[in-house]
Design brief:
The chain is an all-alpha fold. It has a domain of about 170 residues: Serine Threonine Protein Phosphatase 5, Tetratricopeptide repeat. Helix 2 packs antiparallel against helix 4 and helix 7 runs antiparallel to helix 8. The longest helix has 27 residues. The relative contact order is 0.06.
Length: about 250
């Protein structure tokens, strides 16, 4: 005989309890495995349609045992949210914050009022660095929820550290008073490193004329002018034929 809906729910909850025990013992791997099995059992029931028409071969009491009523639906969704939230606690322990956020979000889809799922998601967001997301979840939970005030203090501290870091990173630009263009800065640096101009050469003082130079300048005779001789053609009769031969020859 096939197990009833209630028996399937009980089997899934047994696996959830085994997961809780493993979590308490610090065995996150075993806890996640049991939670996964619990999710498989509960998800199969959650997807099963309620009010299935009675088969001719089934007795009325058997049909009632295999049909999910509204109370069982609510129990399934509530426990699915709990198991997903517990998986989020395991991922937090393993510092897998992204996965913790994912499973806690899934838990809240099953049960939006699950406080632990939202609180654990806020913790994961804070540790991941999503300060705005963490603040939204913590604000939504309110100060009356245990642990929210402590997480809010951590959030304020992280926000202050982030602001201080940003202020320091911007300090170098703000202290200059103006933004210097990179090309302008390079030009200023090259001009400051340029070699100084060479000093102008000293003027050589003129020497005073001596007595000997004065005497030589007065007694020096003017140079003799030699007239250029006029060109006189030679009277040799053999010149003209030789010139004629060169003119008619090859270049």
């Amino acid at each position: 005989m096939a197990p009833t809906i209630q028996e399937k729910i009980a089997d899934a909850l047994t696996k959830k309890d085994l997961g809780n025990e493993a979590f308490k013992n610090g065995d996150m791997k075993a806890a996640l495995m049991q939670y996964h099995l619990a999710v498989l059992g509960l998800s199969g029931l959650d997807n099963q349609m309620a009010g299935m028409p009675m088969m001719s071969s089934m007795r009325p009491q058997e049909t009632a045992a295999t049909t999910i009523n509204d109370g069982q639906k609510s129990e399934i969704k509530t426990n699915l949210a709990i198991v997903y939230s517990n998986m989020g606690a395991c991922h937090l322990k393993n510092a897998n914050y992204k996965r913790a956020i994912e499973v806690c979000t899934t838990a809240l889809k099953q049960d939006p009022n699950n406080v632990k799922a939202k609180f654990r998601r806020a913790q994961a967001k804070l540790l991941e660095g999503n300060l705005a997301g963490a603040e939204a979840d913590l604000t939504d939970l309110g100060d009356k929820v245990p642990g929210v005030k402590a997480e809010m203090e951590k959030l304020k501290k992280k926000s202050k550290e982030a602001e201080e870091k940003q202020r320091k990173s911007m300090g170098g630009f703000l202290s200059r008073g103006r933004i210097i263009d990179p090309e302008e800065e390079a030009s200023e640096a090259s001009s400051s490193q340029a070699a100084p101009a060479a000093p102008a050469p000293k003027a050589t003082p003129k020497s005073k004329p001596t007595l000997a130079s004065k005497v030589n300048s007065t007694t020096r005779k003017p140079p003799k002018v030699v007239k250029d001789e006029e060109y006189k053609p030679s009277t040799w009769s053999g010149t003209a034929p030789k010139i004629q031969e060169l003119a008619e020859g090859e270049e």
